[in-house]
Amino acid sequence: MAETKYIFVTGGVASSLGKGIISSSIGKLLQARGYSVTIQKFDPYINIDPGTLNPYEHGECYVTVDGHEADLDLGHYERFLGIQTTKANNITTGRIYKSVIDKERRGDYLGKTIQIIPHITDEIKRNVKLLGNKYKFDFVITEIGGTVGDIESLPYLESIRQLKWELGKNALCVHLTYVPYLAAAGELKTKPTQHSVKELQSVGIQPDILVLRTEHELSTNLKKKVALFCNVDENAVIQSMDMPTIYEVPLRMQEQNLDVTILQKMGLPVGETPSLGPWRDFLNRRNKATEKVKIGLVGKYDLQDAYKSILEALSQAATYNDRKADIHFINSEKLTDENVEEQLKDMDGIIICPGFGQRGIEGKFVAIKYCRTHDVPTFGICLGMQCIAIEFARNVLGYADANSREMDEKTPHNVIDIMEEQKSITNMGGTMRLGAYECVLDPTSKAYQAYQSEHIQERHRHRYEFNNDYKKEFENAGMKCVGINPESDLVEIVEIPTLKWFIGTQFHPEYSSTVLKPHPLFLSFIKAAIEK
Fold first, then answer.
1. C-alpha separations of 191 from 179, 222, 252 in Å
2. Which residue among 15, 68, 158, 222 is the one 20 to 30 A from 523 at the CA level?
3. Cα 41 off chain centre by
4. Is residue 371 annotated as a catalytic residue, yes or no?
């Protein structure tokens, strides 16, 4: 296509309606028609990135290959489209303002008074068009975080208004709202949607397509009413009902011709409807899988969004093993030697979750010791891998006081320590080993059997590393360092080969697991859990 087309996805009535899933579904449907597509998320908060946010505030922090700490919606984009996103795919208000202030300090504005319009909005527009200009995508989908009516969203909406005016047929707005069901009246109510669209119209944006989130089927009459009151074509009112899995959403959107409506509105040929064969195969396998594999998640955040990518990677891997992932959260703060058997004995496999800080760490050691001594398939991720090393040092090597410098500055047996180049850094934001790094695998290891490749690349997000001074001792006692970074010689993967499946990775494999390409380590872990 000669020119990049821009689709804006906004939300109204309430947050958490699933703008990321709708954006990903639109992207999937357009991609299936042969278009090159990318998706970006604009977040209205003032943090530079979500790296320093508590997962309870914002769910997991997702990491891109180029080492950017990003919103968890980028995980959905990558899992649905099988693409790799970068720093340019996630912009926050903090970054927009920082960029404008930096320019002002350099004197780029030649003494002008800096204002939200045009300076902030121009910077937003520049970022919206950045990927399209640079890589010539056919479609750039931009999801605006938050809800229409929020004060912090206003500069983004003003930027969309300007872009829709400037780009004409090459820009389109999809607005996602909620249609609540009032049980007492036995009715679905469209008034919140009408108000939300009026709010959008009041800043000068007329939505082209409405997607209505609902728990109940919407009648044709109700959709007609919404179309009439909101100035939207009848075929551009789409319902999005709750589904057993988010991966059903692209098919439901296709059934209602959402992609056809978008192409027609943008003056593009419609052509044949793509079959989405591999996607349907995945869903068929998922729906046919009746047997369960029970996986325990040992961590400190009892919130599904805190471990979003891990849950999705487990679910995908289970599907490809023809099982349903039955996932149980086990709070590591409450695990003790007395109750560990009760909590873990029914699990087929255990994930030792990533995280930062001291809280819940002792419970992880208790879980690891139980799994190691009872030969339960165990997968430690990031801090989980470090905990595997510490537990081994304490209970096998006999260093009862072994620890990580993160938890105990003065530990005499610092089997996990901070990297030399990190020691002088005091600023918390983005000072870690972040993004994709090389790793070379030992060809005799279980990790190698899973990957079927000696050279891999995986994404990191951590400040502390395995201390190589202890490497020989660990290996002599039965824990092998089977994945090494070729440049820094840092340990990336540990495993105990005598056990069924006992592996810790310093990196986050969950970030690169997608619907059509599940991650080999998760596939291997689930297979071992089934065999148990």
1. 8, 11, 24
2. 68
3. 12
4. no
Which tens digit of pLDDT belongs to each residue from 232-262?
Answer: 999 999 999 999 999 999 999 999 999 999 9
Q: Which residues contact 38 (CB under 8 A, 6 or more apart)?
A: 27, 77, 83, 85, 89, 131, 135, 137, 139, 140, 141
Query: What residues contact 182, with CB distance under 8 A and at least 6 apart?
Result: 188, 189
Q: Express each pLDDT in 293-350 by its tens digit.
A: 999 999 988 777 789 999 999 999 999 999 999 999 999 999 999 999 999 999 999 9
Q: Which of 78, 158, 492, 510 is catalytic?
A: 510
Asked if residues 40 and 91 have their Cβ atoms less than 8 Å apart, the reply is: yes
Q: Which residue has the tokens 């695998």?
A: 441
Catalytic residue among 68, 462, 508, 519: 508
Judge whether residue 404 has pLDDT over 60: yes
| DSSP per-residue codes, 237-298 | EEEEE--SSGGGHHHHHHHTTHHHHHHHHTT----PPP--HHHHHHHHHHHH--SEEEEEEE
531 is known as an active-site residue = no
In the annotation, is 76 catalytic? Answer: no
**What are 77-127's pLDDT values in tens digits?**
999 999 999 999 999 999 999 999 999 999 999 889 999 999 999 999 999
- Contact residues for 81 (Cβ-Cβ < 8 A; gap 6+): 24, 27, 28, 31, 37, 39
Dist CA 137 CA 2 (whole Å): 10
167: left (phi over 0), alpha (psi -120 to 50) or beta: alpha
- Catalytic residue, candidates 61, 353, 371, 382: 382
Mean pLDDT of the 359-365 span: 92
d(CA 3, CA 24): 21
Angle of helix 154-167 relative to helix 121-135, nearest 10 degrees, comes to 50
Look at residue 340 in the predicted model and tell me its pLDDT: 95
**Residue 213: which of 251, 243, 250, 187 has the closest Cα?**
243
Give the span between the Cα atoms of 455 and 202, in whole angstroms: 55
Give ∠ CA 270-139-97 in degrees, rounded to 5: 155
Picking from 34, 37, 33, the residue whose alpha carbon sits closest to that of residue 9 is 37
